[in-house]
Structures are given as structure tokens and as C-alpha cells.
Predict the 3D structure of the following.
Amino acid sequence: LPDGTRVTLNTDTAVALAFTPNGRLVRLMRGQALFEVAKDASRPFMVEAAGRRVTALGTVFEVRLDPGRMKVVLVEGRVVVDHAAATAEASAPAPTLLKPGQALVAELGVPQRVAPVDVGDELLWRDGYVSLEDTPLASAAAEMSRYTAAPIRVLDDETGRMRISGVFRTGDADRFTGLVRELLPVRIDRQADGSLVIANASAKKTSRADVEN
């Protein structure tokens, strides 16, 4: 960025800049970004996303936006997370100070929470990998689909509740689904539109119409 800050963007990510002589503001419109902030005590660096504002002076942190969910991971330094000025309410939570190795998660209808995370696992996407730890298969398929041209779908809720763990390379739907088939009692059906459907091994073979319905 113009101030020397480095931003690494994950897949399908967009940001907008609003830099002034008195401050540095970045709006995360969608996706996920890692910020390595250049120090400038006279110009606070702020990232706004989903009605939250992350403020830092010189630090490294990540912000991710998903439908109905926003997550901040602090890698080093310190940041404060509060409500953006335009959306602040009397009932809004007090500002939250994060320490390195902590993540703040804000979801619609759920109180925001702070928890320790493995920063190395959180940043694996920069090297083309995703770490999954006892993750529901439906969530794993959605995460891996972020990086593939053809989506990966799970046929039914029962299959979607199966759990999976491991470190997987992004961008290769066939390799991921092949590993899933080795680890779990499922089969993979390729649809006419190129998408891959994960189904219980005992379920009937799916068609494109089944998936669309």
C-alpha cells in the first residue's frame, strides 16, 4: 500500500482504500486478507469489515469475511476490535484487545468470542494449503470449494456431518475428494456441470437434477 503496509489477498477477495493525512482505512469488501502494517503512530491503521473495525499501529493480523461471519486473527503485535463508528450502538460490545495467537469471531445471532488459535494453521492458505481439524464434511467441502473452478458439494446432511482432519492442498478438487473417499465411507459422483458430489457409499448414484433439487 502507499504507506508501505503489505496486504496478502486470498481467493475472491476485494478491498477498498481510504487514506488521508490523518488516518489509514481499508474496507474489506469480501474474502480474506493478511495485513503487515507499517508503523506510523500519527496515522492509525484501521480495517473495517461487517460493521467491525480493527485498529493497529504496527502489527500483523488477518481478517476474513464469510456470509454472516467475521474473523480476526492476530499474528503479532496488538489490535483493538470494536464496532465501526457508523454502526456503533449503545448495546454494542466493549472494544476487545487481542493478543498474538488469539482470534475474535463475530457471527450473526451469536455473542462474539475470543479463543486461542494455531497461527501457523490459520496462515497455511498463503502456501496453498488448508488445515482441517475434526471438521464437518459439509464445512470442509465449502472451504475447499473456495479454491476450485468446479464446486464440491455434499449430497445430504448425514454425510455432511461426517468429520475429517488433515492438511489439504487447495485448487485440486479431484485430489481432495479422492482423499476424502480414502478416509471416509463415501463415493464421489461427477456431475454434467463439472461439480463433484460427495455421497454416502451406500446412497444411490446422484445426477445433476438431484443436486439442483
Q: What stands out?
A: Residues 12 and 165 are 25 Å apart (CA to CA). Residues 173-183 form the longest helix (11 residues). The radius of gyration is 20 Å.
